[in-house]
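Shift notes (night). Ran Entericidin while the centrifuge was going.
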Amino acid sequence: MIATQLSRIGIVLAALLALSACGNTIRGMGQDTANAVDATQDAGNRVAGAAE
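Came back to this:
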């Protein structure tokens, strides 16, 4: 009985750990995407300035 409860607790803790790792990955991807958008806009502004 106790072993079953401990294994369930272990499974829940492992799932929470995996989900937190996924959250960090998704947050990092969002930051990378925002940086790429900013860099693209900056490049576009520089091209537009050079064409004037």
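The first helix runs from residue 2 to 51. The mean pLDDT is 89.
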